[in-house]
Amino acid sequence: MDKIFEVIRASRKALLSLVEDLSTEQMNKIPVGFNNNLAWQMGHLVVSQQVLCYKLSNNELMIDPTLVDKYRNGSKPESFISAEEIAQIKAYLLDTIDQLEQDLATDKFSNYTPYSISTYKGYRLEKIEDAIKFIVSHDGLHYGCSLMMRKFV
User: Fold this and answer.
1) Looking at the predicted structure, is the pLDDT value of residue 75 above 90?
2) For 22-55, what is each residue's pLDDT tens digit?
3) N vs C: which end of the chain shows fewer Cβ within 10 Å?
């Protein structure tokens, strides 16, 4: 699993680098043809990881729970995302992965509830390791979307 965590961190660091020089307004801009923005993309990665790993294991989330509805699958930005919230999400991008790696070394995820990924027909997460492997693909997909969005902000 060490290599998997290395890949997740590399992807998230690349995303942070991609947006590091953008203003709050640019992070909130929804480019033509898209239904969300760069701030939402980052929030979605954080929330998805927390739900797929912690919530499905009946563990307390490590993030502000009010973020879940704002950034869950199927959501879109409903209001301007503040600079403070964006800063918090940026910190969560790496902090939550560090904590996940630490928690994986314990028995914290032994009560995992299997879950079918709605956007990947037929793909089912049976255990925490499946969720962590899925995060690699999910993060990569949203990094690619972010690369496209970055061209238009």
Assistant:
1) yes
2) 999 999 999 999 999 999 999 999 999 999 999 9
3) N
Pick from 110, 115, 23, 36: which is nearest to 72 by CA? 36
Q: Measured at the alpha carbon of residue 100, what is the angle toward residues 97 and 101, in degrees to the nearest 5?
A: 90
Cα(98)–Cα(88) distance, integer angstroms: 15
Residue 16, judged by CB atoms within 10 A of its CB (0-12, 13-18, 19+), counts as: middle
CA distance 56 to 125: 10
CB atoms closer than 10 angstroms to residue 12 = 23
Distance of CA 97 to the CA centre of its chain: 10
Entry pTM: 0.96
* Cα 146 from Cα 40, distance rounded (Å): 10
User: Which of 93, 51, 90 minimizes the C-alpha distance to 72?
Assistant: 51
Residues 40/77, Cβ–Cβ less than 8 Å = yes
Of 1, 30, 11, whose CA–CA distance to 148 is shortest?
30
| Phi-psi sector, 123: left (phi>0), alpha (psi -120 to 50), beta | beta
Residue with tokens 């997909």: 141
